């Protein structure tokens, strides 16, 4: 045995074998490759990103609060827009109603003006003077002159006269035919609907 150990070549062979076994055990290329692959896969999974941009899977309280506030604001704006649309529709409908009422009032006023004769305070002074002049005339003479006036002016003058004075003049206006009688009847009806200016209160 000692001789074998003293053999130089045997010692070299044993040393080479031991070195080879130690190197193979320490290195083990296949195992190291598997470990490296596992490490790389773990790193890739921890750094995975969504296609086209960064990952949003992480939890951020501030971002969540901001998103919630934006949703609430959008809902508030939507409700506000809906309320404004309803208000606009209601105002449009009310405007149509007001326009219809205004047109009806204008039409009624126009119809009333054709029926009702109004004597203003400004013209009543001159009309009273004319009424006194025609009252002093004979009914036939006043009737001949008043026939040439338009109905509105004629009614205003007769309104400012006494009933005892207007009756003979109307009788004179109705003489001469059917048309004259019809005109006298219309004038009599308009006298009933004549509006005179209010009388001024007497001084104390």
- Tally the helices: 9
Spans of at least 5 consecutive residues whose pLDDT stays below 50 are 48-53
Biggest sheet overview: 2 strands, parallel
Please give the radius of gyration in angstroms: 59 Å
The helix/strand series, from N terminus to C terminus, equals: HHHHEHHHHHE
Mean pLDDT: 77
At a glance:
The chain is an all-alpha fold and 204 residues long.
List the helices and strands and how they pair.
Blueprint: H1 2-6, H2 8-27, H3 29-46, H4 61-115, E1 117-118, H5 121-136, H6 139-146, H7 151-159, H8 163-174, H9 178-192, E2 194-195
Parallel strand pairs: 1-2
Helix pairs in contact: 6-8, 7-9, 8-9
Q: What does this protein structure show overall?
A:
The longest helix has 55 residues, at 61-115. This protein has nine helices and two strands, in the order ααααβαααααβ. Among the domains are: 79-115; 117-195, no CATH class. Helices cover 77% and strands 2% of the residues. The chain has a two-stranded parallel sheet with strand order 1-2. The protein has helices at 2-6, 8-27, 29-46, 61-115, 121-136, 139-146, 151-159, 163-174, 178-192; strands at residues 117-118, 194-195.
């Amino acid at each position: 045995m000692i001789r074998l150990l003293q053999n130089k070549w045997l010692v070299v062979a044993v040393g080479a074998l031991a070195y080879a076994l130690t190197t193979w055990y320490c290195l083990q290329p296949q195992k190291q490759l598997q470990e490296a692959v596992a490490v790389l896969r773990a790193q890739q999974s921890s750094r995975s990103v969504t296609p086209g941009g960064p990952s949003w899977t992480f939890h951020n309280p501030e971002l969540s609060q901001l998103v919630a506030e934006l949703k609430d604001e959008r809902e508030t704006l939507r409700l506000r827009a809906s309320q404004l649309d309803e208000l606009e529709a209601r105002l449009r409908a009310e405007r149509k109603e007001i326009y219809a009422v205004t047109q009806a009032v204008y039409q009624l006023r126009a119809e009333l003006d054709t029926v009702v004769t109004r004597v203003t305070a400004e013209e009543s002074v001159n009309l009273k003077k004319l009424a006194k002049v025609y009252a002093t005339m004979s009914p036939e003479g006043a009737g001949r002159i008043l026939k040439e006036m338009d109905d509105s002016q004629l009614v205003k003058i007769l309104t400012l006269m006494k009933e005892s004075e207007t009756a003979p003049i109307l009788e004179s206006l109705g003489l001469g035919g059917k048309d004259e009688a019809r005109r006298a009847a219309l004038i009599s009806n308009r006298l009933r609907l004549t509006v005179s200016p209010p009388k001024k209160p007497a001084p104390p």
